[in-house]
């Protein structure tokens, strides 16, 4: 067909211009093949180039959140009681989460000094259920309690010794956080002598105390737990029901 021949030739020529490294013969009977293969190669290369960008974006988001939390940690530690009280008032269903809009008001009220980008990253991280709500208990515990082991440099002085066996903790429930947050000010006030008392009771030097001895030491420092609080703390620190608790793990949650 005279009318179709120039278009086929021009399409083959344009394909060659787009991919000069591939030497394709001019075959007028199959003009579509070079165009199709080059377009597929273009799609694959485009998709491949997007994947590393997504990974780096996610890792940058996590890194920035850690920086933000370190920035506001001291402020949170001074005003966490007020923040928790307001959050609990807004959390009518007692689910440990509030609407993001309520958190924005709380952040402004307690002068957390967060930029718009920092607020977006924090609210994205603690929207655990991806439902537009802010998990304030998880946010507060990450800024106040140290329940996850952290890597320390060799030059850093060790305040609380790590246990010989790594801890396998139980569930981090809302009731557990409430109990730990309630006694946090008292623990910070007397943790050094309490640590010495724990060690003196640990005659075998295993880093573990029977629950009765653990409760007695807390009582000596005027820290009295309710039955519910004790149950939730033991559920976390004595998941295997060994009737023993690692006092170093317990103290490390409060000392940062």
From TrEMBL:
One of its GO terms (cellular component) is nucleoplasm. Residues 1-51 are annotated as: Disordered. InterPro entries: EF-hand-dom_pair, EF_hand_dom, EFCB6. Pfam families: EF-hand_7. One of its GO terms (molecular function) is calcium ion binding. Residues 1-21 have a biased composition (Low complexity). Residues 194-254 form the EF-hand domain. Gene3D superfamilies: EF-hand (1.10.238.10). Residues 26-51 have a biased composition (Polar residues). PANTHER family: EF-HAND CALCIUM-BINDING DOMAIN-CONTAINING PROTEIN 6, EF-HAND CALCIUM-BINDING DOMAIN-CONTAINING PROTEIN 6-RELATED. This is EFCB6 protein. It comes from Oceanodroma tethys.
